[in-house]
Amino acid sequence: MLKGRNLIKPNDLTVSEIDEICALAEQIIVDPNSFNEVCRGKILATLFFEPSTRTRLSFEAAMLHLGGSVEGFSDAANSSTAKGESLADTIRTVSSYVDVIAMRNPKEGAALLASRYSSCPIINAGDGGHFHPTQTLTDMLTIRALKGGFEGHTIGFCGDLKFGRTVHSLSEAMSRYKNNKFVFISPKELAVPEYITQYLNDAGVEYTTAERLESVIGDLDILYMTRVQKERFFNEQDYIRLKDSYILDNQKMSLARKNMIVLHPLPRVNEIAPEVDDDPRAAYFKQVKYGMYVRMALIAKLTGVL
Ligand code: CP
Asked: pLDDT exceeding 90 applies to what percent of the chain?
């Protein structure tokens, strides 16, 4: 039963609940018009304390496509946070107006804190370098659509694996399915955190690490590229040194399997050359669209209308 629940981290959902959400998203994709009134009278608040294009706008589009309404802010400077209001008080207030809240906040743990003060479901739309569970649902719906399911994949995660919340979320989520293997491709300074490798060790999941994308790209079914995130660095010199560690271009794509897909949560900066966009294996703009459909399904489930 998903009605009334919070979504703070991907593994708040069971494997069968992920199936349920993906199955509903697939029904919506086939016949969107039959869902365009199901949230009539419901309100989604989008509280974004950090910049976003895809997550905020796809949440808002999702609720509007379901016939509901949307309110919120995209810059905390325009909210009473700027006057010193606590997150707890903001959430107590907003949850008394709306049916569901999607919140992004730069502080790790902010979504969990919000859930303790909210009278409606909280969806974590990204909390610092921690988790981004609706990006994970987006990635999973894309994998299900393009690779036929969640099992038996070799998935390469490339780029900023230290601060990349999408990587932390997707690797944890995919580790629950059989016969998946992970290849973590990063400079040493941006390696995946120990709490993730510990989780994978405990779960008995096979993984390797690499520093050169060219040396492993040919082994992959899915390549998950990520941006080196300037906003997470304390030292600009480190960012400048590491920002162009990986640039996927047609030459590297020529080493990859014919049926590999390239995902990226976006936004990208330099890590995928625009020439790759025309390669049929580039799936990151399809992924964007799946993100809206999976958020439609999630909103419908958490509000209890379906
Ligand atoms: N993928 C993602 O979270 O994109 P935005 O930062 O634009 O929301």
From this structure: 91
